[in-house]
Amino acid sequence: MLKPTRRPVRPYFSSGPCAKPPGWSPDQLDTRILGRSHRSGLGKERLKLAIDLMRETLALPDSHRIGIVPGSDTGAFEMAMWSMLGARPVTALAWESFGEGWVTDAAKQLKLDPTVIRADYGQLPDLSRIDWRHDVLFTWNGTTSGVRVPDAEWIPEDRVGLSFADATSAVFAYDIDWSKVDVGTFSWQKALGGEGGHGVLILGPHAVERLESFTPDRPLPKIFRMTKGGKLNEGIFTGETINTPSMLSVEDAIVALEWARSAGGLPGMIARTEANAAALDRIVAGRNWLGYLAEHPASRSRTSVCLTVAGADAEMIKRFAKLLEAEEVAYDIAGYRDAPPGLRIWCGATVDAADIEALGPWLDWARDEIKN
Ligand SMILES: Cc1ncc(COP(=O)(O)O)c(C=O)c1O
């Protein structure tokens, strides 16, 4: 088979860090704050701008606070777990490796004896089995299996426990009903195309109530502490970060958020994601050797789309991905190390649909090369 002539212009299909926004260049970064204090007037202004732009783009209701915290998504999720869990029983949901990570935290580190509801790679567990007197931990979009929750309908309005959503591969790509999310977390390097390093923590009113009424029986590192004298440290949610952030990452997030605004805000980003995933759907539909790891269409991710490859083992996938990387037509498309062997192609908003379309013939070419 001859090499296809058309190449993706931006071969960035990694599921994290994901493609930078179209047209991104380091020249776009406002560098005035570099070399200066993040607690200066300008520093606080830039942090606040990042927070305000996130609030606007996510269409976050006024009831919810949003702040920048250390340690990327993991830091944000763990600070919430360590600060809030233990007040009531815990249920942890897992259907791929990131959800499993939160199960490990709850069971082995926090020793909370959680109820664990699991499903295999490709499946979603039975969400109707959840006892909502519990605090419930889940991953909105399982990045390593390409299985997401289809919506927030399964989270009751009158829940007693708190919902903790790791939404890092879901925000800026899906329409999230924040009224169903008490704790939400993400990091910038996914659908927004920002840099890693910082987590974003979203707290609904019930989460704040929990923080102000419950003191966990465990030591809390300084970078997890969200209250002072029994009251929420509101500064975290206006740009007074707990410790020193990378202002370069903050400036980069601002560039990405300004791009998001220019691309039509959240509706625009969702439309771009959908167009990308639809382009990939067409590629899969035209090839009997490609399929989806996620069995049910409603819970199939539209961001981290995980594909099965007929007859593939881990070795074949490695060669497949390497061939395409060497051709500079697709970077980082091998599935996650703990997932069943397959391909994973990011379809978030910072990817262009034309580039997904151009990828199809290259997948055929790589398969042919390996077969011969
Ligand atoms: C669903 C999910 N949760 C958590 C993480 C960890 O994110 P971070 O590296 O920002 O801590 C990832 C990273 O890929 C993820 O996809």
Ranges where pLDDT stays below 50 over 5 or more residues in a row are none
Largest sheet: 7 strands, mixed
Distance between the termini: 10 Å
Strand content: 15-25%
> Which sequence of SSEs, written as H and E, runs from N to C?
HEHEHEEEEEEEHEEHHEEHEH
Determine the structural class based on helices, strands and strand pairing. alpha/beta
Global outline: globular
CA gyration radius, whole angstroms:
21 Å
| Secondary structure tally, helices | 8
Bound molecules: pyridoxal-5'-phosphate
Task: Work out the helicity level.
Answer: 25-40%
Chain oligomer state = single chain
Write the layout of secondary structure elements.
Elements lengths: L40 H18 L6 E6 L1 H13 L5 E5 L2 H13 L5 E4 L16 E5 L1 E2 L4 E2 L14 E4 L16 E5 L10 E6 L1 H9 L13 E2 L2 E2 L14 H16 L2 H21 L4 E3 L11 E6 L4 H13 L16 E4 L6 H19 L1
Parallel strand pairs: 2-3, 2-4, 4-7, 7-8
Antiparallel strand pairs: 1-9, 5-6, 8-9, 10-11, 12-13, 13-14
Bound molecules: pyridoxal-5'-phosphate (PLP).
The site of pyridoxal-5'-phosphate (PLP) has 12 residues, from helix 2.
